[in-house]
Design a protein that fits this description.
- The protein has no helices and eight strands.
- The protein is mostly beta strands.
- The chain has a six-stranded antiparallel sheet with strand order 1-8-4-5-6-7, with no helix packed on it. It has a two-stranded antiparallel sheet with strand order 2-3.
- It is globular, with a radius of gyration of 12 Å.
- This is DUF5348 domain-containing protein.
């Protein structure tokens, strides 16, 4: 069964500094997100969080210990 996603595309920063998709849907802290790992050709599930140290949002999957910063250009969906 193929799940339909409401929003999918490449991540960019919007005018507020949040990560957004090409259709202008944007993510805030604690919001679920899936990003595509091109190394493994798999979708990673996690949430978006904000780092005060880096002053930017990042991908977080505490369960698997995956933290990815600099998400510009990453393929994402929700």
């Amino acid at each position: 069964m193929n799940k339909k996603y409401d929003h999918e595309g490449k991540l960019k920063h919007n005018s507020q500094g949040r990560y957004a998709l090409e259709d202008n849907y944007y993510f805030t802290s604690g919001e679920p997100i899936e990003i595509f790992d091109t190394d493994d050709n798999t979708w990673l599930q996690g949430i978006i969080e904000y780092s005060h140290k880096y002053q930017d949002y990042y991908f977080c999957n505490d369960e698997d210990g995956i933290y990815i910063y600099d998400l510009l250009g990453w393929k994402a969906r929700i």
